[in-house]
Design brief:
The complex is a heterodimer of chains A (103) and B (117). Chain A has five helices and no strands. By secondary structure, chain A is mainly α. Chain A has a single domain, classed as Cyclin A, domain 1 (Orthogonal Bundle), CATH 1.10.472. Chain A is globular. With 117 residues, chain B is an alpha+beta fold. Chain B has a single domain, classed as SH3 type barrels, CATH 2.30.30.50. Chain B contains three helices and six strands, in the order H-E-E-E-H-E-H-E-E. In chain B, strands 1, 2, 3, 4, 5 and 6 form a six-stranded antiparallel beta sheet that branches. Chain B starts with 5 loop residues before the first helix and ends with a strand. The chains are: A mainly alpha (103), B alpha+beta (117). Chains A and B meet through helix 1 and helix 2 of A and helix 1 and helix 2 of B.
């Protein structure tokens, strides 16, 4: 796929910011996201090549702006919906419930 | 696709995933030192052949063994197991006049990406 991820040789992207003493996870939700990913792979819902392809299918602007684990979240979500494991309606319902709990 | 066994799951978390075939029926097509030229596929789906390495000539640097082809594995078209190599490309071959003499890049390539040069 000739997508935004294939940026080798592109000019104008600026220097790579390297974080000193970068932690494995910046937030607890990223740790959970890693766990969700491992469980979906272990459960045989999709393979890692499908997962990479799902990330690559993010819209280019999102791919460039979203953090690494946010890309993971959207990639996993897309695959689970495409494979009829979850529906977008179920996901949206659950998000509404969680928002109420937080509120 | 089926769920992983406990043993496979522990290996995945401990050392990462691999699609390596330990005892392949047929070995890789190319050997160290072979000159190869990359093909020019432009699939709308996953590939590990970057755009800037298409139609470029390189040299087999290392034979990794036989692995599933990510391109087919990503679209549910089977593992399509085949040779995988580290291929050396000179900087000037990739970047023309902007290439740095003496610099090179090593990129992993599957049989389906290559023809003999």
């Amino acid at each position: 796929m000739n997508g935004i991820h294939d940026c080798g040789g592109m000019d104008g992207l600026g220097p790579i910011d390297r974080e000193i003493d970068e932690p494995v996870f910046h937030n607890d939700w990223e740790r959970k996201m890693f766990g969700v990913f491992i469980l979906t792979i272990v459960g045989g819902l999709f393979n890692d090549d499908e997962f990479r392809q799902s990330r690559e299918r993010l819209e280019p602007v999102k791919y460039l702006q979203f953090s690494y684990y946010r890309q993971w979240l959207l990639a996993v979500q897309r695959l689970l919906v495409e494979k009829d494991v979850l529906s977008m309606e179920e996901i949206e319902e659950r998000m509404k419930d969680l928002a109420k709990e937080d509120g | 696709m089926s769920a992983l066994s406990r043993e496979e799951a522990l290996r995945l978390v401990g050392t990462g995933a691999t699609t390596r075939v330990d005892d392949p029926a047929s070995g890789p097509q190319y050997a160290v030192g072979d000159r190869v030229v990359t093909r020019n596929p432009n699939p709308p789906t996953h590939t590990r052949l970057p755009r800037y390495v298409r139609c470029k000539t390189g040299t087999i640097h290392k034979v990794h063994g036989v692995f599933a082809l990510p391109d087919s594995n990503a679209v549910g078209a089977g593992r399509n197991e085949q040779g995988c190599y580290s291929v050396r490309f000179d900087s000037e071959e990739l970047w023309g006049p902007q290439g740095q003499v003496g610099d090179c890049l090593f990129i992993d390539m599957w049989d389906d990406y290559l023809d003999p040069a």
